Amino acid sequence: MQKILFATSEVYPLIKTGGLADVAASLPRALLKLGQDVKILLPAYTSVMENTKSVGVKEIAKLEVDGYSVSLKQTRLPGTKVSVWLVDVPELFAREGNPYCGPDGNDWYDNHKRFYLFARVAELIALDKAGQNWQPTIVHCNDWQTGLIPALLSLHPNHPATVFTIHNLAYRGLFSYQAFAELNLPTAFWHHERLEFYGQLSFIKGGLAFADFITTVSPSYAREIQLPEFGNGLDGLIAYRNDSLAGILNGIDTDEWNPGTDPHLTCNYNRRTLANKTKNKLALQEELGLAIDASIPLLGFVGRLVDQKGVDLILEQMNQFLNLNCQLVVLGSGFPHYEQALKNIASQHPKKVAVTLGYNESFAHRIEASSDMFLMPSIFEPCGLNQLYSLRYGTLPIVHAVGGLRDTVFESPDDAGEVKSNGFVFSVAAAQELFSTIRRACDLFQQKDQWKQRQANAMSKDFSWDVSAKEYVAIYEQITAQ
User: Fold this and answer.
1) Mind listing the domains of the chain with CATH numbers?
2) Integer Cα distance of 122 and 94 in angstroms
3) Is the CB of residue 93 less than 8 Å from the CB of residue 70?
4) What's the rounded Cα separation, in Å, for the pair 298 and 242?
5) ∠ CA(203), CA(94), CA(67), 5° rounding?
6) Residues 299-320, buried b or exposed e (16+ Cβ, 10 A)?
7) What is the 3-state secondary structure (H, E, C) of the chain?
8) 32-49: b or e for each residue (b if 16 or more CB lie within 10 Å)?
9) pLDDT category, 419, cuts 50, 70, 90?
């Protein structure tokens, strides 16, 4: 059994901005199920303190760290037996809204201090200096916010083994040299093989340069980030660490995302009762003011409205799309120009396009269940979770063949050999390629037997965390043995 300190900047349902929160909720639960002793370490943001009231919170330690008074609190992840330790420093973390940026959309001015202090507390726990009589054998860090933890632990001869997971390499945690100086980090860290990145401090390099093992969230993304096109300037370092790198596909919470029991749906269904899926579609069409007709293909999009997600491709082919007999439902938020463009299209074509800005978990579930196809034309996609939810819900994904999308969605003209088509795939990030793929999907939608077969292929695959969690345990055992 490993003792695992799982350090993360967000975890669902306590705080969520993206897929990291879903992983941080599901993987520790799966590890616990495999008999591991796991504790999540999380900053005590205002919303986290609010969302833990129902399960109770107690203080377990008071620490003085670099001039800050830190209260270490213990709670558990709602609905689970997973322990969560909260790093409570009100002047750094007691802020409303997004954990990384203020109401103006700009990063908090002191993010370097906030996540440095979080790393320092993790360091103390890892060295059993937090008065808990619990020392992890593994410290599992996630994304740039935790990148300094492996770097700080490297300063101690007998530190626990460290794993660093890249959820999205586009976010590198970049700060000025002045920020580096303010943190009083060892001068030896200011080096291009350590934390220095083209004259800036990069938090993510702490994980990439110092962790014992690096993982990322799909096999294809592990290969892609060793190339300049996807490496964000870090491809050289990652290729150098290739022997300590693995791509492990994210799983999904199959209890939370289960069309047979999902409480958010108008009508539950499974592989044998797929006809009931249509009832969800008709209800959503009525609710959103779309033309109510089961025979019209309905496409769903749930995600951030940013360039990574291929929103440009969607908008560029929109005139052609509007000439097809199909509908589009969008839920998301992001860049104002994307939001406005989509709202304009919806107001001009209210029977064909519905756009809801913001995020609503229940509505996301209903879109997954009601849509016939799920639109995911990402320019890059480390793993992607929505295509996995879609497959489980018999909603065939339309994807650009990158990262985790390439590893999970398949289309072959004749279903030859091993490949069992479960969606629709295009290889070049171009609007015309996306449109051709949408049209291909709409054509197949009219071939009911073939469509049902593809839905059956989609719903038969196991995307639970059970498989992936075992791969993580194998890595933990490998590096602790070394």
Assistant:
1) 3-251+465-481 (3.40.50.2000), 271-459 (3.40.50.2000)
2) 19
3) no
4) 42
5) 65
6) bbbbbbbbeebbbebbbbbbee
7) CCEEEEECCCECCCECCCHHHHHHHHHHHHHHHCCCEEEEEEECCHHHHHHCCCCCCEEEEEEEECCEEEEEEEEECCCCCCEEEEEECHHHHCCCCCCCECCCCCECCCHHHHHHHHHHHHHHHHCCCCCCCCCCCEEEEECHHHCHHHHHHCCCCCCCEEEEEECCCCCCCEECHHHHHHCCCCHHHCCCCCCEECCEEEHHHHHHHHCCEEEECCHHHHHHCCCHHHHCCCHHHHHHCHHHEEECCCCECCCCCCCCCCCCCCCCCCHHHHHHHHHHHHHHHHHHCCCCCCCCCEEEEECCECHHHCHHHHHHCHHHHHCCCCEEEEEECECHHHHHHHHHHHHHCCCCEEEEECCCHHHHHHHHHHCCEEEECCCCCCCCCHHHHHHHCCCEEEEECCHHHHHHCCCCCCCCCCCCCCCEEECCCCHHHHHHHHHHHHHHHCCHHHHHHHHHHHHCCCCEHHHHHHHHHHHHHHHHHC
8) beeebebbbbbbbbebbb
9) low
pLDDT at 208 over 80: yes
Confidence bin at 469 (pLDDT 50/70/90): very high
Give residue 171's pLDDT. 95
Cα–Cα distance, 264 to 197 (Å, whole number) = 46
Q: Give dist(CA 453, CA 279) in Å, integer.
A: 20
The backbone torsions φ and ψ at residue 174, rounded to the nearest 5 degrees and listed phi first, read -95, 135
Which two tokens mark 294? 């089961």
User: What is the Cα gyration radius of the chain?
Assistant: 23
Whole-model pTM: value is 0.91
Instruction: Tell me the C-alpha distance between 468 and 244, whole Å.
Output: 17
